[in-house]
Design goal:
By secondary structure, this protein is mostly helical. The protein contains 21 helices and 6 strands. About 10% of the residues have low confidence.
Length: about 450
């Protein structure tokens, strides 16, 4: 009864703090101190902090305050200056592994060696979570606790699956990785978890490629490190940067509530369709060879530069370079935009169905630099006006940029193209008169708004 825990996020107002100030004057019932724990204390309002400050300046002798927060920088300086600060950090994985092994020996549990490492990783630095996971595994497993029990119960992606996925990406096997993704998702695994584990796998491979193969940096069994080391030799540092960037962008798309399966499939198609990316060092080392080849085969003879008569010998006036630069290609090809457009329409349907409906009436028309023009029939001026609004346009641009993996801007233009007509079966077409008879209120709506029926089907 002498320990009171308060949720700062739910009790953040000045009234709650006033009640606290009134209660601190009462002595503890049993203990030596009365303890007040305010969790997520940074959520308190400015007025609440000011009300609390007086109590902190002159606290009763029998009261102790404990403030817990993940964002100490949000606390006012007046509060921080009156507190002792203790920064809690995640427990290293190796320390958690040793503690779990000790518990397993005491409890006489039969557990595979690699299980401890995976449980420690799943706990994310929390000893309490690690013990809880181990307790659940030992309760549900029949006999010996195996690594498969961990991956199955925690929804983790096994190293064998990640290694196979990495192999498909390295070999640019789109069909193989799409089949693997289908198996992973059909088995109940989470698309976001798969991407997070995959980016971790390539992170480990990149570190090994840099010459660091210590288990301390990997947090993986020795056998898994050996497999990753072999695969890392097939990729350049540029490949790693590209792969990790594509996966990171896909995780951002999932955070925007886009369909996870579509994002994951789009991600792995990008990864297996990539061109080989040479590292900066490789490009720099080849520059002299490239320049020599260009001079020998393409460049016209360079005239001897004239010596300036008023300058010392050896000082030359370089000839003004000729403007032979070809036209720079668009940042993205229109064919890629057209391929991405149906994906964008489906993706936006998850966030806002009306925007998706408006977008479905448009068609990618052209690309100029990083500006993509989307054409709408002139009759759909309202669609264009709605899509041009900032709160609608920016999310669409952001989603398309992530799908294309390059920043783009959108402009919505009017054309003489006719409104898209649905392709229903002949029997499903319904005439305007039939629709009016079926729904008399439509006549009233047309009279009030001066509108006309653009499309109708029996299923509408």
């Amino acid at each position: 009864m002498d320990v009171i825990e308060i949720d700062g996020a739910s009790n953040r107002g000045i009234d709650e703090i006033r009640n606290l100030r009134d209660s601190v004057k009462y002595s503890p019932s049993k203990g030596r101190y009365k303890i007040y724990i305010i969790d997520e204390v940074h959520m308190l309002t400015t007025e609440a902090f000011n009300a609390l400050l007086k109590t902190l300046e002159e606290p009763p002798a029998h009261v102790k305050f404990i403030f817990a927060t993940t964002e100490p920088h949000k606390l006012p300086a007046t509060i921080l200056s009156r507190c002792q600060r203790f920064d809690f950090r995640r427990i290293p994985i190796r320390d958690i592994v040793e503690k779990l092994k000790e518990l397993a020996r005491e409890e006489k549990l039969d557990i595979e060696e690699d299980v401890f490492l995976y449980v420690a990783k799943a706990s994310e630095g929390s000893m309490r979570d690690a013990e809880s996971i181990l307790d659940q595994l030992s309760s549900f497993s029949k006999g010996k606790v195996k690594l498969a029990d961990v991956t199955e119960s925690l929804g983790m992606i096994g190293q064998d699956t990640l290694s196979t996925a990495a192999g498909f990406i390295i070999n640019k096997d789109t069909k193989g990785i799409l089949s693997l993704v289908a198996d992973v998702l059909n088995s109940g695994k989470d698309a976001k978890q798969f991407l997070m584990d995959l980016v971790g796998y390539f992170r480990n491979a990149m570190i090994i490629k840099a010459g660091i193969s210590s288990e301390e940096f990997m947090d993986l069994p020795k056998e898994a490190i050996g497999n990753i080391k072999t695969q890392s030799q097939s990729l350049s540092q540029g490949d790693f940067f590209y792969i990790i960037n594509v996966i990171s962008n896909s995780l951002k798309m999932i955070k925007q509530l886009l369909p996870e399966r579509i994002v994951l499939e789009l991600c792995v198609i990008k990864l297996t369709s990539r061109d080989s990316i040479a590292s900066i060092e490789e490009i720099l080392s080849r520059l002299p060879e490239i320049e020599k080849h260009a001079k020998d085969h393409h460049s016209p003879p360079t005239p001897t530069p004239a010596v300036a008569p008023h300058r010392a010998p050896g000082v030359v006036i370089p000839e003004k370079p000729r403007n032979n630069t070809p036209n720079i290609a668009s940042a993205v090809e229109i064919s890629r935009v057209k391929d991405a457009w149906p994906i964008l329409v489906k993706a936006m349907a998850v966030k806002k169905m009306s925007i998706s409906t408006y977008l479905s009436e448009g068609e990618p028309d052209s690309v100029s630099g990083n500006v993509v023009s989307i054409a709408f029939p002139r009759q759909l001026n309202f669609h264009r006006e709605v899509l041009e609004e900032k709160q609608n346009k920016e999310p669409v641009e952001a989603a398309l940029s992530q799908i294309l993996d390059t920043p783009v801007k959108l402009q919505f233009i009017a054309t003489d193209r006719e409104i898209k007509k649905p392709q229903p079966e002949e029997s499903s077409v319904i005439t305007r008169d039939e629709l009016k008879k079926k729904e008399p209120i439509i006549n009233t709506a047309l009279d009030i708004f001066g509108g006309k029926i653009l499309r109708s089907t029996r299923n509408a």
